Amino acid sequence: MVLDSGGYEVWLNPGVVDEEAEWAFMHGQCLALAVAGSRQTGWSVAVLTEREEEDPDALAPGGFTYSDILVHAYLVTPDERLLDITGEAVPDLEARQQLTIHAADQVDVLLEQHRGYLERQDEAVAATFVPAVLAAGAATPTTSQTVTSQTVTSQTATQKDFQHR
Questions:
Q1: Arithmetic mean of pLDDT over the chain
Q2: End-to-end alpha carbon distance in the chain
Q3: pLDDT-derived band of residue 120, with 50, 70 and 90 as boundaries?
Q4: What b-and-e string marks burial along 140-163, b requiring 16 or more CB atoms within 10 Å of the CB?
């Protein structure tokens, strides 16, 4: 059992990609899956963030601040394809331009940045799904819509302030 982004329990059969697994890893457990995949393969993790204005009433007087909201996380293959629970993911051009890549040795920093509000990430359960994700990604034809160095902003995890929806 894992919790989705709404805090609801989702019962999973370890390693079995079904509707419940797709729901869980598309709604709150995507970072756990990407990190588990990174640990098993040594590949990078890509995160898609969205800039969101914080509630001005909760801030000190003087203006607004912004934070980056984690929308989705992917495992990045050596040929720069993006994998998630559905296999090869092909985000639209605008989304690809907003990706931030984190090297495998930076995933602990990435997790730590999310620890305060993503404590429910279940990397152990996610690890049981990595072989299925890798198999689905290998079975998916590679297209010209891979992530390229022009469409990815490479930054270290410490340069971002992440929150998850």
A1: 78
A2: 20
A3: confident
A4: eeeeeebbeeebbeeeebeebebb
Chain-centroid distance, C-alpha 12: 19
Selection from 111, 109, 33 nearest residue 74 by Cα: 33
- In one-letter notation, the amino acid at residue 57 is D
Q: Are the C-beta atoms of 90 and 143 separated by less than 8 Å?
A: yes
Select from 3, 55, 24, 35 the least CA-distant residue to 109.
Answer: 35
Whole-angstrom Cα distance, residue 71 to residue 107? 17
* pTM, entire model: 0.76
Residues making up the chain, counted from first to last: 165
49-67-162-57 Cα dihedral, nearest 10 degrees? -130
H-only helix segments in the chain: 19-26, 30-41, 93-97, 107-114, 123-127, 130-139
